Amino acid sequence: MFSTDLSDIPGPILRPRSHSALKTINIIDKILLKLSEDPLATKADLVSMAQCCRAFEDPSLNHLWASMSSVVPLLKLIHGVEEFQGSLARIPFRKITHEDLSPRFHSYAKHIRNINYDVSGDFNQVDTSTWMRLARLDSALLPNLKSFKLSYLNPSTLGRERSLLLLPALIRRGPVVSFSFKTTSVVSYRARYEVGPILTLLSDYNLGIEVLEAAGTFTARYSQVLRTVQTLQSVSLELSLDSPLPDILTTLSSLPNLRKLGLVFFGITPDPDHLKSYLFPKLVGIVLRGRITFISRTLASVNVIGLECVDVQVMPGAGDGVQDSVSSSLQLSRFPALRKISVDLVGCDPSHRYEDRDNKLSFVAPMLGNQRVEELVITSLESTMCLSDYEVIQLATAWPLLRILRLEHTSPPVMQPSFASLATLAARCPRMTQLSISLREDHLRDVTRKWKLRPIMGALNLQHTKITQYVRAARYISGLFPLLHNFDMSEQRAGETMHNIMFRGDEIEDVEKVDDVHLKEVPKVEIEPPESSPRKMKKKGKK
């Protein structure tokens, strides 16, 4: 691990009166610069470094603790007991008492909402004995823990190391309602991954788990064990070729409180006859990952009365046996209560994304029959797949209850809807609170000048640009859009992942008042106020 001292990083230190959001930008900018120097840097290191910053207690960092929490930097904060052996963090807990724990250890622990236990060869992994001793610490160590996730490279050891999970000691100490178990990718069909010990443990201790995520080979016996966990409300299963789909669906349909179901199939297409006789009376959300053939047959066969949310990710091989477009294959018009639609086209053949260019609404047209839709999210769009003005107006006409519209491209779009059509969308959809579109750099000035969008702009997403450019632009954007509560700035360079920074409204509402922030090589963005109309100017002259 590298040093977490940020004092040697060049860059300005913001004045004490600077807004917390800009402080966070400055901190994360320094952290990313430091991490870029280390090829082995990970998200856990980002947390480890961020907790050393002077703004450690700043509320604006809460989203960082919630999304990137890891036990390794937590354990590292115990003063004087750290010892590294190879890739394992071994800590002699026998020498630790409650008084020995450093104040920063408790300060960091109270922020932890999610714990990710990764035993997959990562150099940040924690060995079994460390977790066993962690369970003996004070019961109030993790007061805000909500989720526990476990990843294994070799799940064959679970049978003899059931105590590893710490569920009796860890989950019972707080309102943990989510448990996630995943093995290495089930794409390798030759290996058998037994998740039975996990399910047996959940059943034996009667922990009241509401959310379960698991991947592996399910046998009929394990399906019966899953039936005993009556408190489950959300189940997500990644199934392999050997998984008995009829037994699994029989079990899931018997869960009295099941409201969300997720199924992921790798490289296989189940027999649709297995899906026709299962009724899910309380199911409101379904998540499907796989080929479009599997997704379309599942949606067409599962008997769901009040389905409200559909989340689909089309994996490679989408065109097998499909002649219509992806949206036509989904047959979403079967669900009159549908409120949320999310489609990820990452693995879909481009020829099945936007076939009929003459039809101005070829992709979203099959979805327009659902009058109650409130949210539409389409990701992994190609640059040529852009909503025209006609499409935007059709959406506004068909979905008057629309609140969220997100269109995320993998590359900058070649065209953009005019702001006149977006203003029409605002007028016909009075509940609109979030609009997320991919903007090219030359549209930044237009975004801030078109004041007609002010009533609806609750969220703004600027992608495919330099993140430093929008540090300066954030001051102007927050002033022009008073209802803005989410501001997403994205940066993507060759060979790097995209970084997203989200700000809440209370963090950016007064950014416009902050003094100028001098960053290296940041082009100045000049925002001109909207021009007054000639008619108003004449009236002023007469007066």
Topology diagram in text:
Blueprint lengths: L19 H16 L7 H8 L11 H7 L2 H6 L7 E2 L2 E2 L13 H7 L4 E6 L8 H7 L12 E6 L14 H4 L7 E6 L12 H10 L5 E6 L3 H8 L6 E6 L5 H10 L5 E6 L19 E6 L1 H10 L7 E6 L11 H5 L9 E5 L30 E7 L7 H10 L5 E6 L9 H10 L5 E4 L6 H6 L9 E4 L4 H14 L5 E6 L7 E3 L3 H4 L25 H9 L1
Parallel strand pairs: 3-4, 4-5, 5-6, 6-7, 7-8, 8-9, 9-10, 10-11, 11-12, 12-13, 13-14, 15-16
Antiparallel strand pairs: 1-2, 16-17
Protein name: F-box domain-containing protein
InterPro entries: LRR_dom_sf (IPR032675)
List key phrases describing it.
alpha/beta, 12-stranded parallel sheet, 18 helices, disordered N terminus, F-box domain-containing protein, 543 residues, disordered C terminus, LRR_dom_sf, 3-stranded mixed sheet
Structure description:
With 543 residues, this protein is α/β, with parallel strands linked by helices. 28% of the residues lie in helices and 16% in strands. It has 18 helices and 17 strands. Strands 3-4-5-6-7-8-9-10-11-12-13-14 form a twelve-stranded parallel beta sheet. The protein has a three-stranded mixed beta sheet with strand order 15-16-17, with helices on one face. β13 (404-409), α14 and β14 (434-437) form a beta-alpha-beta unit. The N terminus and C terminus are likely disordered.
